Structure formats: structure tokens, C-alpha cells
Amino acid sequence: MPTLRNGNLSALPLREFVLEGFRGGVEIQALLFAVFLALYVVTVLGNVSMIVVITLDARLHSPMYFFLKNLSFLDLCYSSVIAPNALANFLSSKAISFGGCAAQLFFFSFLGTTEAILLAVMAYDRFMAICSPLQYPVTMCPATCVRLVLGAYCGGCLNSIIETSLTFQLPFCSSNRIDHFFCDVPPLLRLACANTALNELVMFGICGFILVGAILGILVSYGYIAVTILRMRSGSGRHKLFSTCGSHLTAVSLFYGTGFIIYGQPGAVESMEQGKVFSVFYTLVIPVLNPLIYSLRNKDVKDALRRLGERPTALCSREAGERQCP
């Protein structure tokens, strides 16, 4: 709560925040709990399945699926930063400690930024595979793939440190009630009793730089890919490449589209109610959709899932001989 000292407004140290979440009575909260729980369970099952399939199937041990496995890992962690705490808030106290709020913001920013950079890396991988197939095995060797992924994580960590430190060095004295269902920069800035122009400018600048830089890289990569595909004479080859690239472009459009709406425009911090709706899509729906997009539109992944399902039956048949495997 605010206090007056020598005519100036100052703030007592906050021990906790209150996440107000979504408005509504018990029925609305129960419905939201069920929706969030369903989305989170499907997210966990879908992304863990992708990680397991890519890990176990030797035919998927290529740079493309190495990046896809990391994308599934990020989606799994990303939703886990938000969903469990949101589910608990629907049923019990909406309080979150000061340190817990800072940690949630840090990991949310870290994982989200890393995923944004990783999607651009995946576009570069497709560009090299399609436009320079002879150089691809050398250019995208395992060491290079690991360095690219580590670079994405480093970029995410740097952005997260800047955003979290700038946000939590502000004095919070107007209230401790966050008008959101998780700790994010825009709703936290509304609670500060200091000038937040620098914070908003930095957030807009960093997010804009990441979004614009990554989108430009993706557009350039897919521009070359489109030209290469259109020059191909084989119709089946074109269809396979369009299918593979289409999955990635769908994931890119969903992620960057909602990210730009929430963070990529200066007025985003003023529309909290709209921001909540887009944040649900951004933090819970997209991690559900990514495994579906890459599995339903990718023949290699579907074949790997089928082989993985057939493996227990084959092992049981060898052990049981002619007996029927249960």
C-alpha cells in the first residue's frame, strides 16, 4: 500500500501480488478450469509424444526434427510456466509471491523469446535443405545445429533478464492486484507508481527487433524456397516440400501473429481484457496446435508414430512365437 513521506508517494515492499484472472462467478471459474486443464493435458501429451517419437525413431534423427524436438520441449515448458498456477488460482487463493511472480515472468519471457528465434532457425534449416541440398549435410552438421539452438536460448535469456530486471526495479504502490491470469510485463507496468515510458520503449524495441528480425529472416528464407520449388519439374516433390514448409509456416503465422498483437504495438499495454484472450491463445492453444500441425501434415512423423505403435506388437510376436499377443 502507498505511504506519504515528506509529501512524496513511496511504496512499501510488496510480499505478494494477486492475480485477478478472469471475471465471473463460480460457474465461470469452473468452466475456465476445465478448459485450461483440457488444453494443458493435451499440450503435455502432444509435445511429450513428439519428443519421444523423434528420440526413438532413427529415421527422424536429422536437423529438421532436432529443431522440432526442441520446439516441442519449449512448448511443453512454456505452457507449464502458466497453466498449473492458473489452474490453482481458479480453485483457491489467487495470490502469488513477489519472487514467484518475478520467476514466472522470467521463464515466460525466456521461453517465448527462445521459441520466436527457434522458428526463424527452422526456416533457415529448410532454406539450406531445399536450396543448397549438396552443402546441407556439411552446413547443418550436428555441431552447427547445437550452436543454433544454444544461440536461441542465449537470446531468450538475454531478453528475459532485461525485461524482468527493468520491470521489477519499479516501485509498485498503486495496488498489488494484477489484472491478468499470470505475471506479464504490460499488467505489471500498470501497477507502477513511476514513469514507465522507458520500460514500454524497451519492451517495444526488444520485441519489435526480435519479431521484425526473425520475420525478415523467415520471409527471405521462404522467398528463396518458393522460387526453388516453383522451378521443380516433379509434382510429387513439390507437394512434399509444400506440405513440409506449410506446417512450419502455419506455426510461424500463429505464434508471430498473436505475439505482434500483444507485444508488437505501443498501445498493447492499454488493452488488458483483449490481452487476456490473446494470451490464452498464445500460452495454451498454440502449444496444443504445434504437435497437431507437425504430425498431421508430416508424413514422416505419421509413419514414425505408426512404427512406434507397431513395435510392441512385433516384440511380443517374436517372444510368443505363434501365440496371439495380448
Q: Which characteristics define this entry?
A:
10 helices; disordered N terminus; mainly alpha; two-stranded antiparallel sheet; 326 residues; three-stranded mixed sheet
How does this structure look, described?
By secondary structure, this protein is mainly alpha-helical. It has helices at residues 26-56, 63-91, 98-131, 136-139, 142-168, 185-189, 197-231, 235-263, 272-296, 299-320, and strands at residues 2-5, 8-11, 16-19, 95-97, 177-178. The strands form two sheets. The protein has a three-stranded mixed beta sheet. A two-stranded antiparallel sheet has the order 1-2. Strand 1 and strand 2 form a beta hairpin. Helix 1 (26-56) runs antiparallel to helix 2. The longest helix is centred in the middle third of the chain and has 35 residues, at 197-231. The protein is globular. Residues 1-11 have low confidence and may be disordered.
Q: Strand count, sense and closure of the main sheet?
A: 3 strands, mixed
> Which stretches are poorly predicted, pLDDT < 50 over at least 5 residues?
1-11
Rounded average pLDDT: 81
Radius of gyration: 23 Å
Tally of individual helices: 10
* Total number of strands: 5
Structural class: mainly alpha
Secondary structure: elements and pairs:
Elements: E1 2-5, E2 8-11, E3 16-19, H1 26-56, H2 63-91, E4 95-97, H3 98-131, H4 136-139, H5 142-168, E5 177-178, H6 185-189, H7 197-231, H8 235-263, H9 272-296, H10 299-320
Parallel strand pairs: 3-5
Antiparallel strand pairs: 1-2, 3-4
